[in-house]
């Protein structure tokens, strides 16, 4: 689940990794990847070879827009640009990514505080904004979720230490990606509409133990 990667970002990442894999594999096999020619770059854009040559030799007579297109296409084709040749295009800034951390009473346990701290550190490494959202332990019948979770500016929610059934169902109804750290037994995992991470769980331990017994294991450590 890639919250801080839009489909376009994922496409760019896939392109990058695909190119990296191809080039790494080629080097490992001793294959020399052929450098694209000026004609190949020209053909890819539907322009003349002379136009491409003018751009790379610093000649005049080519519009800024076409010049930038030629340079970008050459870079896409892994053409080594002559020294001093750069695109004048300024990349559009990507919109910020906001992840909400929705939590009930984290101060009751150093366990949760440590997790929150590590999540904040990790997200900051990826330039992702962490939006802290406090949730009550108990809610009334007319309770509505905080606007920070429903205003459309949040791209994902991390939910921690929430065990109120009604509150969990409200969170599950949010149409954005979610990860739950623990949950209440009254709400089945399949109804959370998100990923679930269980830190301590009697049912899961029982299933794991039963599986090991069926495999013939006779000694266990916990």
The gist of it:
Helix 7 (165-172) links the parallel strand 3 (156-160) and strand 4 (178-181). A five-stranded parallel beta sheet has the order 2-1-3-4-5, covered by helices on one side.
Would you mind describing this structure in some detail?
This protein has 222 residues and is an alpha/beta fold. It folds into two domains: 7-76, no CATH class; 97-205, Response regulator (Rossmann fold), CATH 3.40.50. Helix content is 41%, strand content 13%. The chain contains eight helices and five strands. It has helices at 7-28, 38-45, 49-56, 64-76, 110-125, 147-150, 165-172, 202-214; strands spanning 97-104, 128-135, 156-160, 178-181, 195-197. A five-stranded parallel sheet has the order 2-1-3-4-5, covered by helices on one side. Strand 3 (156-160), helix 7 and strand 4 (178-181) form a beta-alpha-beta unit. Residues 1-33 have low confidence and may be disordered.
């Amino acid at each position: 689940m890639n919250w801080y990667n839009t489909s376009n970002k994922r496409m760019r990442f896939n392109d990058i990794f695909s190119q990296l894999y191809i080039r790494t594999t080629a080097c490992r096999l001793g294959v020399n990847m052929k450098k694209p020619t000026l004609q190949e770059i020209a053909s890819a854009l539907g322009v003349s070879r002379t136009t491409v040559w003018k751009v790379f030799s610093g000649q005049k007579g080519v519009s800024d827009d076409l010049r930038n297109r030629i340079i970008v296409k050459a870079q896409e084709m892994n053409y080594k640009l002559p020294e001093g040749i750069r695109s004048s295009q300024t990349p559009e800034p990507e919109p910020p990514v906001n992840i909400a951390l929705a939590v009930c009473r984290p101060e009751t346990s150093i366990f949760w505080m440590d997790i929150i701290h590590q999540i904040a550190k990790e997200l900051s490494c990826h330039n992702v904004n962490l939006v802290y959202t406090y949730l009550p332990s108990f809610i009334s019948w007319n309770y509505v979720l905080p606007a920070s979770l429903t205003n459309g500016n949040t791209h994902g929610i991390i939910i921690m230490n929430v065990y109120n059934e009604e509150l969990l169902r409200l969170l599950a109804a949010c149409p954005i990606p979610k990860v739950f750290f623990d949950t209440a037994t009254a709400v089945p995992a399949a109804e959370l509409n998100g990923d679930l991470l269980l830190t301590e769980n009697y049912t899961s331990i029982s299933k794991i133990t039963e599986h090991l017994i069926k495999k013939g294991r006779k000694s266990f450590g916990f």
